Amino acid sequence: MFSATIDATAFRNALASVEVLVEECRIHVDSDGMRLRAADPALVALVDLTLDAEQFEQYEASEAVLGVNLERLSEILSVAETGDTVRMEFDERSRKLDVEVGTLSYTLGLLDPDSIRDEPDLPDLEPPAEVTLDGRHIDRGVKAAEMVSDHLRLAVDPDRETLVIAAEGDTDEVLVELGRQEVAALSPGPADSLYSLDYLTAINRVIPRGQTVTLELGEEFLAGFEFVVPEADQPVTYRVAPRLQRA
Amino acid sequence: MFSATIDATAFRNALASVEVLVEECRIHVDSDGMRLRAADPALVALVDLTLDAEQFEQYEASEAVLGVNLERLSEILSVAETGDTVRMEFDERSRKLDVEVGTLSYTLGLLDPDSIRDEPDLPDLEPPAEVTLDGRHIDRGVKAAEMVSDHLRLAVDPDRETLVIAAEGDTDEVLVELGRQEVAALSPGPADSLYSLDYLTAINRVIPRGQTVTLELGEEFLAGFEFVVPEADQPVTYRVAPRLQRA
Amino acid sequence: MFSATIDATAFRNALASVEVLVEECRIHVDSDGMRLRAADPALVALVDLTLDAEQFEQYEASEAVLGVNLERLSEILSVAETGDTVRMEFDERSRKLDVEVGTLSYTLGLLDPDSIRDEPDLPDLEPPAEVTLDGRHIDRGVKAAEMVSDHLRLAVDPDRETLVIAAEGDTDEVLVELGRQEVAALSPGPADSLYSLDYLTAINRVIPRGQTVTLELGEEFLAGFEFVVPEADQPVTYRVAPRLQRA
Question: Residues in domain Proliferating cell nuclear antigen PCNA N-terminal (chains A, B, C) (predicted)?
Answer without folding.
Answer: 7-97
